[in-house]
Amino acid sequence: MSADSDKSWPSIPPTQLKLQREPPAAVPEPSAPAGPGAPVPAGPPGPPVGALGGAARRPAAPPLSLQDWLVRILAGVLLAGSVAFLYWSYTRLAPVQKQARTLAERANKLSQEIALMEGKYPPPELEKLAQDFQFAGQLLFGGEEDLAAWFEGLKRQLVPLALEASAEFGRPSAPATTNLSVAVVPATLTLNLQPSSDVGSIRSPYGRVLSLLDELTRQPKRVDLVALEVHAGSNSISQVRTVLELWAGEEARP
Asked: Is residue 3, in this structure, part of any structural domain at all?
């Protein structure tokens, strides 16, 4: 510090410096023991004292009543039901939701295909397609009774041609070229040519076989000729064997 700053503060002799100290706290004097009639000072109560001078024990809890047991059993049942519901939701609900999503996707895809078809084909063409599809159903055979009736009608048509027919039907199968609910019934038709004066004078055996093929093409139901086998001698035909495929509806499936 500079000399000017020392002159601004007066010097105080050490004898005049006095430190102020707080007076010591008063120590309370011990009070005389209270007499028998003196009042007892108030204070927190101490622990209860037992008969033998020790701390008193807590009383035992009362036994559970029937209502308490019912409440506990009900709580346990509710807890078990909640756990069972969570397990069912995990094992059953998740697959069902997945199946529902799959079906929704398929329905959405079908609706898109329908919208595409409606936009591609005008209403008149759609009506024509519906009529053609309905007409295609009429070309199919029914069950076994319909097949038997068709064969009986064919035999009556072959009487004027002097042809004796026998048929053997195979097991129906689904065609591999279509997704429709149809069946193809294989049939082996065996024809024996019988001599007839009425027919022989007009048509030759070969002409009668050609008439047979013409009858097959004129059938009201769909009949496909798969194979034709002709057994002939030196002068005439003795037997004709044909393999046919008869188109039937879904009811003809085994």
From this structure: no
